[in-house]
Amino acid sequence: MLLAVANHAILIAVSVGFMLPILFMFATALMTDQQALSQRLVPSPVQWSNFRTVFSQIDLVRYTWNTVLYAGLSTLGVIVSCIPVAYAFSRIDWRGRNVVFLLVLSTLMLPTQVTTISLYVIFAQHMDWTGIQWVGTLKPLIVPSFFGDAFSIFLLRQFFMTIPQELADAIRVDGGGDLEIMRRVIIPLSKPALAAVGLFNFIYAWNNFYDVLVWVGENPQAQTLSLALSQFKTLHHVEWNLTMAASVIFMLPVILIFFLAQRVFIEGVSLTGIKG
Q1: N or C: where does the chain have the smaller number of CB atoms within 10 Å of the terminal CB?
Q2: Which residues, including other chains, have CB under 8 Å from residue 81's CB and lie 6 or more apart?
Q3: Which residues does 253 contact at the CB level (< 8 Å), separation at least 6?
Q4: Rounded CA gap, 217 and 202, in Å?
Q5: Where are the alpha helices (DSSP H) in the chain?
Q6: What is the mean pLDDT of each run of 10 residues along the chain (276 residues)?
C-alpha cells in the first residue's frame, strides 16, 4: 500500500513538473505586455485580445492549411510505404533479410543535416526533367515520405511479428497470397501500431522546422506554422504575451489529436516491443 502511494506521488510530481511550463505559457498568453514582463503569475485582467492580434498579424489560415497538408500527406505516405516493407521483413523468409533490415536501421544514425546537401542538389538540379518546381514548395517534404521511414518500418515490423502465423496460413489455404494476407489479416489487426506510427509522423511533421526552412525558405505561400512562429517571435521578441499566444495556437491541434488517439497510441507503442 505504501509503495503504491509512493509511486503515485512520484508520478504526480513528475506530471506537475511537465505541466508547469504549459500552464505558464497559457497564463502569459492571457496577460498584457506589462504583466508578461512582471513577476505576476496570474493574468489580471485576462487579455483575450492577444489571440485576435495574432490572427490579424499573420496569415494563420494559410499556414495552418500548409501544415495540415504537409503533415497529413507525409503521414499517409509513411504508412502506405512502410506497411509492405515491414511485412516483408517480418512475414516473408528470404536470403539476406536480417542484413538488409540492419542496413535500414543503420540509416537512423544519420542526422538529417548529413543528407540535406545531396537531396537539395537532386531536387534543385536533377529533377528538371519532370517540369515541376521543387525548391520553394512542400513537395520535397512530402514525396520522400512515400519511400518509407526506418523508424516506422521498425515499429510496424515489431508489431507484425506478434500476429499469429496461423491466421496467415488460413488465408494461404484458401488460395490467398501475401497481398491478401496484408489486406485481410495484417492491416485490420495492426490498427494500434498504425495509429502510433501515424501520430509519431504527424507530430514530427507538424513541429518540423529545419526541413521546412531548407526547402520552403522565404516563400510565404508554402510556409508552415513552425516557420511562421519563428518569424513571429523575431518580430515580437519582447512581447512575450503575443509570442505565447501564438505558441498556444500552434500546439493546440497536436494536443487535441493526441488526446483523441491516446488509447490506440499507447496500445500501439506498448505492443510493438513485445516480440523482437
Answers
A1: N
A2: 145, 146, 147, 148, 149
A3: 64, 206
A4: 21
A5: 2-29, 33-36, 49-57, 60-91, 97-106, 112-125, 139-142, 150-160, 165-173, 178-181, 187-189, 191-207, 210-215, 225-235, 240-260, 262-271
A6: 82 86 86 77 82 85 92 95 93 90 89 87 84 88 92 91 87 86 89 88 92 86 88 77 87 82 67 48
Do 156 and 163 form a contact (C-beta atoms < 8 A)? no
Give me 98's grid cell: 536480417
Residues 202-223 as b/e (b if ≥16 CB within 10 A, e otherwise) read: bebbbbbeebbebbbeeeeebb
How distant is the alpha carbon of residue 222 from its chain centre?
19
Q: What is the pLDDT of residues 77-108, one digit of tens each?
A: 999 999 999 999 998 888 989 999 999 999 88
pLDDT the model gives residue 270? 62
- pLDDT for the residue 271: 58
**How many CB atoms sit inside 10 A of residue 32's CB?**
17
Identity of the residue numbered 44: S
d(CA 231, CA 188): 43
Cell of 120: 537539395
CB 225 within 8 A of CB 203: no
Report CA-CA distances (Å) from 194 to 125, 154, 160, 226, 255.
35, 12, 11, 25, 19
Q: Which domains does the chain have, with CATH numbers?
A: 1-47 (no CATH), 59-271 (1.10.3720.10)
